[in-house]
Design goal:
With about 90 residues, the protein is mainly alpha-helical. It has a domain of about 35 residues. The chain has three helices and no strands. The protein is elongated and about 110 Å long.
């Protein structure tokens, strides 16, 4: 009698009689886990999606958030863009 016949390997896991049964259990468990996570993710992100939708609707109904130079009191944008010039032109 060989050692393997005298001492057969232990079953894969006491709860599962074979590797195939274990793989089937893992596959079913993975499907259940993904369904739970998808539901939880949908519930978690639902308020954020609603807030983003209302914010985009509010932004579409109002004007642009950008300002023009005249709204800021800057009639000549070139002088404003050149404010770091060390040798500014002499204004009259």
């Amino acid at each position: 009698m060989t050692y393997r016949k005298q001492f057969p390997p232990a079953p894969f896991y006491p709860r599962f009689p074979s590797q195939e049964a274990w793989n089937e259990y893992r596959r079913a468990d993975q499907i259940e886990y993904e369904a739970i996570m998808n539901r939880n993710e949908a519930v978690f992100y639902e308020p954020q999606r609603a807030a983003a939708a209302s914010a985009s609707a509010a932004a579409a109904s109002t004007g642009s958030p950008e300002f023009t130079f005249s709204e800021l009191g800057l009639e000549d944008p070139t002088s404003f863009n050149n404010f770091m010039n060390q040798d500014p032109p002499a204004d009259g």
